[in-house]
Design brief:
With 310 residues, the chain is α/β, with parallel strands linked by helices. The chain is 28% helix and 22% strand. Strands 6-14-13-8-9-10-11-7 form an eight-stranded mixed beta sheet. A six-stranded mixed beta sheet has the order 2-1-3-4-5-12, sandwiched between helices. Strand 10 (239-246), helix 9 and strand 11 (271-273) form a beta-alpha-beta unit. It is globular, with a radius of gyration of 18 Å.
Length: 310
Amino acid sequence: MNAQPLQPKALPPGSTLAIISPAGATPNEQAFTDGVALLETAGYKVKLMPHAQNKRMYLAGSDIDRLADFHATFDDPEVDGILCARGGYGCMRLLPHLDFERVRQNPKVLIGFSDVTALLLPLYQRTGLVGFYGPMLTSNLVHHEPFSQAELFKLIQQPVATPYTIPNLDTYRPFMPGIAEGRLIGGNLSLLAALCGTPYQPDTRGHILFIEDWKEKYYSLDRQFQQLKLAGLFDRITGLILCDFSEIEPEPELNLSDFLKELTAFVGVPVGYGFSVGHGAQTATLPIGCMARFDAEQGTLTLLESPVVG
């Protein structure tokens, strides 16, 4: 992994945002129309990449076409930043063919979450690129409260005056008190587990790890946490933030908070649960690779450096 993060340039209003679909297909065109309108109202120029609205079974078109759009956004001098249309599944299929050097030579803001974990983490590991785990065009950005939009724009439109505390709208519960510092790394639990044992498994040492997921059962959460544990992803992290775990199938014997506390009792670093990042109704944006401080007792996450440069 690169010792220094690669901070992309800020995206003030007037910048051009390219829309790509590196994973699943968006069910309807209206979602694109609504998302584009929102971005234009915010002052952005929007460029839909040629294959952004393709569909092939559960994917947004072929691997070749999705990869071509991804690479083209970094090559295009008119494109200032990149926003993923949605998650779903498909980003892992692109990994063996990614041109990491192309990204390193043309660093740009890349925004997405969920399945896009499988792009953001390898890009950070291989190039140092600070990625933005935040709302996407046809999901949180357009269908949820203005909080998601405001927090994304706050981090990408100009360098952030630090220290900057990420707002949290969820109910927070401290599991293990303490204060952790380190660069942020993490994402969706299912994708973190899927990357284990591959050449793209993230190196979490010295980092604050954040995890979120949704629509899982207790046993599947357990299995995936065990996979991360056995793969060493909890070894030598400085802190652990369990973010939004929404629409988890309930178990009558144990509430979700107590279950997650049991699963992470071994970690031995500051741990807390309940942070509005992920699939929930409102999501903040977390910059992967950015230096931060996590106070697990107070439940505060503070950026110590700006994720973008002017």
